[in-house]
Amino acid sequence: MSSKRDSFKIAEFITYDPDYSRIPFRSVEKKKNKKTGEVEEKIIEGRIGVAAAIMLIKAIWWTKICWGMGREDGVFYKTAAEWEKETGLTPREQETARRNLRGTKFWKEQLKRSSRSPTELHFQIIKEQLDKALELSDESEPVQKPEKSPGVIRQKRESRFDKSAKLVSTKCRSLFRQNVESHLIKQRIHAENTAEITSSKQQAEISSLSNPEPLPAAAKIIAANSNDEHLSRFSIALIEQFCKATKPHAKSIPALARAIWKSGADDDQIERWQQQQAGKQSPPPAEMTEEEIDAYMSEEIERLIEKRDFHRLADECEEIRARGGAKKEWEIRAVAFFDLHRNDRGGAC
After folding, report:
1. Strand partners for 47
2. Torsion angle in degrees (nearest 10) through CA of 297, 301, 306, 310
3. pLDDT tens digit sequence for 168-196
């Protein structure tokens, strides 16, 4: 048995000693089982380690400082930031070291309230218990793990590689088999559909040749198509005339006329257009005076502007240009309105 040593005297002149790292600890960790929901206890045993030894030696130094200040219990407080600054240990490393130190009999921790903070973590080291723990560390021999030969390690690595290679090859084969099967199924379905379509076409051609449809029936079908459901009260022929007169920019006049005929949305415009066509005023008589002609043309221009009859306005603008340009009030008004809306209908005078 080795001679008794003073643990505090060892830490007086050094910052680290391997003997401290070999101090044994034993702690009980409680953990909840996710499957059963019960709290299970797990016993952890071992040596406190290097990080705990560094923390312990620093704690011994602070205990001796407290003794020099007349505090016999040697209790001191220290924050995680201060521990990290003095020892270089991160908060996670401190937590692991403190867990191992709490598994000994010489390390004490206690939360206290003070004027500095509502919760301060205070530490205390029991010197007598630390001396006993240091003696136990001297008596215990380091546990040596059996060395593994390189052949065993290589064999394990190769076996793991073989397993992963087998898994990959099995997955590749299954995926390839699935792709081939799906491709064959698609080809079979396509061939069956093609055969059905070809046979149906052939049967239709044969039936049409053997039983040709008479001309009156075909005429009835055309008549039925021309009497489709529609909402307009005007005929398609009239609507086509309306589209040619008012919508010359349309790409397909028949298609536009059929759409208007089915929807009936432009019936009001078609009716106004009919009234304009039926009620066009005849040109003023020759015996009218120039003032009466100006009054008549002023009312006519206002009517065309109100109806937005760009075709009639274009004709008037052309005549005004042929006479040498706008001079009278109604001529200026007609030309100005037409030029202002040239982008709407196109053209200029």
Report:
1. 24
2. 140
3. 566 666 776 777 777 778 777 877 777 76
Domain boundary among 139, 174, 190: 139
Range of the domain at 266: 229-280
Compute the residue count for the chain.
349
Domain assignment present for residue 56? The answer is yes
What do you get for the CA distance between the two ends of the chain, in Å?
125
Using the Cα atoms of residue 75, residue 135, residue 103 and residue 10 in order, give the sign of their dihedral. positive
Burial 276-292 (b: 16+ CB within 10 A, else e): eeeeeeeeeeeeeeeee
State whether residue 12 is helix, strand or coil: coil
Domain for residue 211, yes or no? no
Residue 175 lies in a domain: no
Write the CA distances from 149 to 133, 145, 152, 336, 343, integer angstroms. 36, 12, 5, 104, 93
Asked if 242 and 299 sit in the same domain, the reply is no
291 and 276, same structural domain?
no
260 and 291, same domain (yes or no):
no
Q: Do both 119 and 22 map to the same domain?
A: yes
Are 131 and 17 part of one and the same domain?
A: yes
Question: Is residue 343 included in any domain, yes or no?
Answer: yes
Q: Model confidence over 230-289: pLDDT tens digits? A: 888 888 888 888 888 887 777 788 888 888 888 888 888 888 888 888 766 545 445 667
Task: Yes or no: say if 79 and 122 are a contact pair by the CB < 8 Å rule.
Answer: no
Report yes or no: 105 and 54 within 8 Å, Cβ to Cβ: no
- CA distances to 9, 106, 344 from 12, rounded to whole Å, are 5, 18, 101
Instruction: For 2-35, give one letter per residue: b (16+ CB within 10 A) or e.
Output: eeeeebbeebeeeeeeeebbbbebeeeeeeeeee
Q: Which of 134, 139, 143, 144 is nearest to 17 (CA)?
A: 134
Give SS3 for 146. coil
Joined together, the tokens standing for residue 62 give 């602070």
Residues 232, 264: contact at Cβ < 8 Å?
yes
Chosen domain end from 280, 298, 321: 280
Q: Name the token pair of 157.
A: 């690595």
Count structural domains, the chain: 3
